[in-house]
Specification:
It contains 10 helices and 10 strands. The strands form 2 sheets. Strands 3-4-5-6-7-8-9-10 form an 8-stranded parallel barrel, surrounded by 6 helices. With about 325 residues, the chain is α/β, with parallel strands linked by helices. The longest helix has 16 residues, at about 255-270. Bound molecules: NADP nicotinamide-adenine-dinucleotide phosphate.
Amino acid sequence: MVYQPDENRYQRMAYRRCGQSGLKLPAISLGLWHNFGDTTQVENSRALLQRAFDLGITHFDLANNYGPPPGSAERNFGRILQEDFLPWRDELIISTKAGYTMWDGPYGDWGSRKYLIASLDQSLKRMGLEYVDIFYHHRPDPETPLRETMKALDHIVRQGKALYVGISNYPTDRAREAIEILNDLGTPCLIHQPKYSMFERGVEDGLLTMLQEKGVGCIAFSPLAGGQLTDRYLNGIPADSRAASGSRFLNPDQLTAGKLEIVRELNALAEKRGQKLSQMALAWVLRNDNVTSVLIGASKTAQIEDAVGMLANRHFTEQECANIDTILNRTR
Ligand SMILES: NC(=O)c1ccc[n+]([C@@H]2O[C@H](COP(=O)([O-])OP(=O)(O)OC[C@H]3O[C@@H](n4cnc5c(N)ncnc54)[C@H](OP(=O)(O)O)[C@@H]3O)[C@@H](O)[C@H]2O)c1
């Protein structure tokens, strides 16, 4: 059956301005790191994208290496895009990245002009696109001069292969320097993509403030700490969960008794607010106006529905924030 998006999709989502740019992003964006590679049934990936778009999620985030195997998430996304979403290309913000190991030899990793330009060309081919909306440098490179990496981003925009550029995983000082170089070059940095959740609060130490001062947006990745900040693991480790999948990013050892106790307390607090823990965790990241969007992952359409349901209750009292801090600061 030909996909027809829900016509009420734009009434269900909030859109937030990305820094001081002209671009607005949905408060919730969908990442394709997991569940879009060749180990997932394409029909499941298709259902996730369709449900997301039906709920007003206009932003899909990829990277050259998403899979497994690397490249397959872009290829599968490209196929679904051609089959289902082509009439709505102009309603979508599609991002990809380069910066982690992608191919053998010295030109398939890190931040050289050689790597970034070749990698984006490969990504565009895999997705069947002429341009992406946002192209990121995925992680800082300690060896390549920052100006070379930023000039490559500037060049890519001038070539028309990306409309905007961003950086990811850059610490505050390096990010400031990158933003200043890009400003100098006349291609402002649209957005930074750091990790941010109740369990990973490093961005609160200056990065968010600096981004706001510079007028750069922020999209928070892994806002549910890969699923830890949900009810997923309250009664053991489900067979279909990320922690059971052999992921090196979330393994059963990380789900310690102490951490689960914290999760249980947060869950009780969320219940008092009349929402699920996953919803409270997303609302908490968005409580900060400097965060443009939360970048979630999902293995099931119901998880995307949960996320969007959060929008009905995003407000926190000072007391609730203090209670959350107390729970999070407890060492067990
Ligand atoms: N720039 C970078 O270096 C970088 C790094 C990592 C990620 N990212 C981006 O961020 C995106 C999201 O990362 P992430 O997948 O780690 O995000 P996340 O939102 O913290 O975790 C998503 C996982 O949590 C579980 N989940 C989600 N909603 C749930 C719910 N309502 N109830 C129970 N469980 C729920 C699902 O896992 P199950 O499989 O257990 O169902 C889901 O796959 C990625 O796709 C990627 O685009 C970027």
